[in-house]
Design brief:
Layout (H helix, E strand, L loop, with lengths): L2 E5 L4 H12 L3 E5 L5 H14 L5 E4 L9 E4 L7 H17 L7 E7 L20 H18 L6 E6 L6 H14 L7 E5 L12 H7 L7
Parallel strand pairs: 1-2, 1-4, 2-3, 4-5, 5-6, 6-7
Helix pairs in contact: 1-5, 3-4
Length: 218
């Protein structure tokens, strides 16, 4: 049975991801991403719904042994001071997972990093204008810097629109994120999923190539 470490597995978006992974028969070890009492209380409330699942474990420290993947589900804060706190926690997790057999790394980021040009392509230089985009850019850079220190790492930066947080969409994003953790590729891939009605389907070509059309025809 596969086992995945989820940083922020009880965060707002991480909770849906943990649910989907468990439904797919994957063991989930969640590491807290909370940086204040309010976020810690929210994690405790969400844990109530997953804690009875034998395949879910909330850990205060990183588990021993190898993992089949690491998913960073809670990766930035708009406030700079909060982002700095989160950065410390994330850096610790990444460095602790830099060991043989760690599996693939998936970093959930924001499409706000593209700016407001309306042009979406993993090939274009990012041009963040909003506070969200700038925070995501800082944390993506941290992620890449830590990857460069590792050897033989398979990783994905997955950019999505966090403004639409309906439960149905969260589960859709969670499904795609969980599959990206087990894709057959090497090195670092940067992909996005943009499901706005005014954006052509061809905008998502790269993630379609990685996962296959079957994930987009249902």
């Amino acid at each position: 049975m596969k086992q995945v470490l989820v940083f922020g597995g009880l965060s707002s978006w991480g909770f849906s991801l943990s649910e989907v992974l468990l439904e797919k028969g994957v063991k989930v070890v969640s590491i807290s991403s909370a940086i204040n009492d309010r976020e810690r209380k929210q994690e405790e409330e969400r844990e109530f719904f997953l804690g009875r699942n034998a395949f879910f474990h909330r850990a205060d420290s990183l588990p021993e042994g190898s993992m089949d993947g690491l998913i960073l589900a809670d990766t930035f804060r708009v406030q700079e001071t909060e982002n700095k706190q989160l950065k410390k926690k994330m850096r610790f997790v990444l460095r602790s997972c830099a060991r043989p057999g760690a599996g693939a790394f998936v970093f959930m980021s924001s499409t706000a990093i593209y700016g407001e040009s309306g042009r979406f392509s993993e090939k274009y230089p990012v041009h963040p204008l909003s506070a969200e985009g700038k925070a995501a850019d800082v944390m993506e850079s941290l992620f890449v810097q830590e990857l460069l220190k590792m050897k033989q790492v398979k990783a994905v930066i997955f950019r999505i629109d966090f403004s639409d947080d309906t439960e149905e969409r969260k589960r859709r994003i969670a499904d795609l994120t969980s599959e990206l953790a087990f894709t057959a590729h090497q090195g670092l891939e940067v992909v996005h999923y943009i499901d706005r009605k005014d954006v052509a389907p061809s905008t998502n070509q790269k993630i379609r190539r990685l996962l296959g059309d079957r994930f987009f025809d249902r």
